[in-house]
Amino acid sequence: MTRKLLLLIVLGYALFSCKPESVSNSNSQLNPEIETKISDLLSQMTLDEKMGQLNQYTSQWEMTGPAPQGASQQHLLDQIKSGLVGSMLNVTGAEATRKTQTLALENSRLKIPMIFGYDVIHGYQTMFPIPLAEASSWEPELARRSSRVAAIESAAAGLHWTFAPMVDVSRDARWGRVMEGSGEDPYLGSLFAAARVKGFQGDDLSANNTIAACVKHFAAYGFIEAGRDYNTVDISENTLRNVILPPFKAAADAGAVTFMNAFNEIGGTPSTINTHLLRDILKGEWGFNGFVVSDWNSIGELLIHGVAADTKDAAKLAIKAGSDMDMEGYCFVPNLKTLVEEKAVDLSLIDDAVRRVLRVKFQLGLFDDPYKYCDENKEKTLILTPENLQIAREAARKSIVLLKNEGRLLPLRKEGQKIALIGELAADKDVPLGSWRAKAITSSAISLLEGMQHAMASPTDLIFAKGPVFISGQSKFNLPLEFNTTDRTGIAEAVKVARNADVVVLALGENCFQTGEGRSQTDIKLKGLQQELLEAICAVNKNVVVVLMNGRPLDLSWMAENVPSIVEAWHLGSESGNGIADVLFGDYNPAGKLPVSFPRNVGQLPLYYNHKSTGRPNNGDNNVFSSHFTDASNDALFPFGYGLSYTTFAYSDLKLSSSEISKGEKVQVSVTVKNTGLVAGQEVVQLYIRDLVGSTTRPVKELKAFEKISLEAGGSQVVNFELTENDLAFWGADNQFRAESGDFNLWVGPNSVEGLKTSFKLK
Ligand code: BGC
User: Please, what are the domains in the chain?
Assistant: First the structure.
């Protein structure tokens, strides 16, 4: 083929697959050399071999879903040898991946390398804070760095591909999977989505320490009714475009090479067969050139949803809609060939899907050296290194949010203060590793007890009491978790220790397997005897610091009223205890801000700061005919963007470059922030807007920019932001993305509720 002809084909493909506005998307740039190689290979492939590239099985030894029926190990091995398995998930380790790869390469006709995927959600073996926690740092660069480490460790263990980042905007704390994402805001979520993709994929996907990202779950999984996992979603195109899709788009723009379907339906159509999502938006408008993998058996589940009569029907619907790879669905391999032969599916659709899968394999460099990731030596030297743990510690302390600190109870003194440390979670070395923990070594986290012991000058100043048992039988395979509500052994001892201490640090929260996939709850209060313990401790000592370890927003209403200091420490990973101790003793001044609203009670859910006005907003007077509850207020207990420091900050001099701008112009915003306290600290300066009148209703506030600054005690800084027309744009009534003329309010402040306010007009 001549170079010119080749260029035409590539250009034609690119034009077909993207609209003008997405041309800059790195996803739409194809490498002509790779495209020729794919064409050559495609021309040699049988239909069976093509189907094989679209097929993914799990290793039989580690599964995250229902075990496949009738797929014996021998059958699996035979299929790999015949080139019928293009990918596997849950095969890990340099040795295992090498062996599996060898099976494909030494036996299959065309020797196409397999691609190995795994859920590396917040670390491979060095565990970083769960993603929701890490989003509390408001430092996307931190997420890029932790994802980089996760990629280096995974690649050293033979993996090519992680099923991350999870970028689902989530507004409902009942959903166990809120821990996997970056919270409720599309803007913050977009920055974290892009950062994680860049961390996993690096600058060069063909390097042997970068892995392919998989953006999931496409789409709207975070909007399942009642937060009950896998449940139904019914949302408008307006919400889809304005709220749900931005982080996906950001991840695609950052160059993510794979996407994953979501389990849920939207308005009657399961996402796995949603042509509008997959073909119109992802592969069309956004020019996405990578491939889409189904979620675990989400093609097979089309039968159970009730939209496919049999697996053949399911395969047809999925491939037509743009799902390219069948994860554990057993639908593509038995059916695609017949569907093509019967002309029910056009061969060009199969070819396009195969081309996409092969493209990622070429981009990863697997055709140059299919074993380059399988290096036992690297596996021994690059995983769980002191450098990686150092980044995990930095990430841990940066993810902590100080929710309350009355009377400056914190920071604690390292000596001369008798500290009672109470609670089973305080000594737990496993819970901080979190849900979705990849290859974390069980019970390998630094516990809070250990972290405090390391930090304190005299170990005798710290007395630990375990309190009552939280859960009986902590195995993740022993679901549902059984919370102890009857055995009060340990409470009396804990109360005695608390009574004799100057200050109490009380660890409360959730077991890590209370959150994650399939762990939805109807109640978000403290489980077991934790509330009882808390009240008993508060009755004998007023100086109580609660350290929370959890994976979702909790109902902290009683605590917020009755406890002077509350530290939100999430599930922080390998270095949890050290990170928390850094904050408790003031070696690190906390600067985290909540990426989700904390409700007053479960009945407020879904709760999010960027809600709509409604025609009858509650103006605080609880007018009976306003949109309100009669038994609780509308607002969050701790709002989005909220978090304290050991110092204080004052905002002044909010200025705009102009109170009126024309389309195409920019608004320059400046504000002065002063550290008015006694110690150095960091502040996340947040900018919100409200578009007062639109062709469709607009949120009462929307985060549009933020900056994390460091200030010495007494120091001040002018913080500058720039808003472009694009920042004011949204998907309006005509389903176009554009800024509409009119008035805007603008706030700059420390969270989504407080701040200085001004306004401007877009002409
Ligand atoms: C989850 C995905 C995950 C997949 C593979 C599914 O149950 O929804 O997020 O990547 O399993 O483990």
Answer: 3-379 (3.20.20.300), 388-604 (3.40.50.1700), 649-762 (2.60.40.10)
